[in-house]
Amino acid sequence: MKKLVVLGGGYGGMTLLQRLLAKGLPEGHSLLLIDRTPYHWLKTEFYALAAGTISDHHIRVPFPESPQLEYLCGHVVKIDLDNRLVHLKDQEPVKYDELVIALGCEDRYHQVPGAKEHTHSIQTIEAARAAYQAIHNLPPKGKVAIVGAGLSGVELASELCESRPDLEVFLFDRSKRILSAFPERLSNYVESWFREHRIHLVREANITKVEEGVLYNRGEPEDFDVIVWTAGIQANKIVRDLDVEKDGGGRVLLTPHHTIPNYDNVFVCGDCASLPFAPSAQLAERQAEQIADVLLKRWAGEPLPPELPRIKLKGILGSLGKKHGFGLVADRPITGRVPRLLKSGVLWLYKFHNG
């Protein structure tokens, strides 16, 4: 019996499972999912959980049920590529024949002293819950700092503005304009929304140090009751520790078939993979579909093409509270209620199709 082990039940892992189970595993193959939690979590909505506008019940989806799928709740601590072993915390190692690494990302602290120790995160369900507790235990007029005005930081700030309008929210960004990877029209729209809702935007920030309740911007300290870090991501530490070639973000460089060079039985999916796109849930899903197709062709004894089709992404959607949003759809900027409705619809469809 040949065993395919999938590490991580995030967007990439979930898509891979659904596609393989829909096609059916060939006789003599088994499928094992290893994840730290008993559910698939909608990580793109962790900002809303931290802001307190939804409960975790609304952002969890059960893993697929199938006689072809076994599930193991465990915490991965090391991957031994040469001996084909996955080491787990306080559990026996798991042997694999083929492996898909989809362990996701972690915060990137850019070597800022104290950032990891003295800020909250929204990268995991546990961290998002802790951020929620910290924020919503604050009295009126409490001060919240959000470091990083990318998509996560912008959505958290806007959602928090609606959830706790009594708080002072400060959003720090190192660029001259927020969402600098987006067209300027979208940045201007979001900044205008922030001004209208009294969110303090600190441009061209340079966070040099963080202490308990103190944020240093360009060396100048300012007191905050809660500090949340959304200033970049990197590959999971388990992946960063692998003795393979990686890019500057710790993501693994891959072959055209999404495998690690010299380990054609090991695939890397999602935020751990070095791809010509910014990491996203949509990218993980598209890549997972291709990995599933490669596996199915291999199992059927069919030849693989020299290269796979270029991954195409449909666009990006962001929310500003519950009624407004922004996005890029087919490279066209959109703002207002329409992108917010589109995002809600995409989320509903995802939950519907995944149980």
List the helices and strands and how they pair.
Layout: E1 2-7, H1 11-23, E2 29-35, E3 39-41, H2 46-51, E4 60-62, E5 69-73, E6 76-80, E7 85-88, E8 94-95, E9 98-101, E10 105-107, H3 115-118, H4 125-136, E11 143-147, H5 151-163, E12 168-172, H6 184-196, E13 200-202, E14 207-211, E15 214-217, E16 220-223, E17 226-229, E18 233-235, H7 237-240, E19 259-260, E20 263-268, H8 281-299, E21 315-320, E22 324-329, E23 332-336, H9 337-353
Parallel strand pairs: 1-2, 1-9, 2-5, 9-20, 11-12, 11-17, 12-13
Antiparallel strand pairs: 3-4, 6-7, 7-8, 10-18, 14-15, 15-16, 19-20, 21-22, 22-23
Residues in helix, %: 25-40%
Can you count the helices?
Answer: 9
| E-strand count | 23
- CATH architecture grouping of the largest domain: 3-Layer(bba) Sandwich
Q: What is the CATH domain class of the largest domain?
A: Alpha Beta
Would you kindly provide a written description of the structure presented here, covering whatever features stand out?
The protein contains nine helices and 23 strands. It is α/β, with parallel strands linked by helices and 355 residues long. It has two domains: 2-36 and 74-106 and 234-299, FAD/NAD(P)-binding domain (3-Layer(bba) Sandwich); 109-231, 3-Layer(bba) Sandwich (FAD/NAD(P)-binding domain), CATH 3.50.50. A hairpin with a 2-residue loop joins strand 15 and strand 16. It is globular, with a radius of gyration of 21 Å. The mean pLDDT is 95. GO terms for molecular function: NAD(P)H dehydrogenase (quinone) activity.
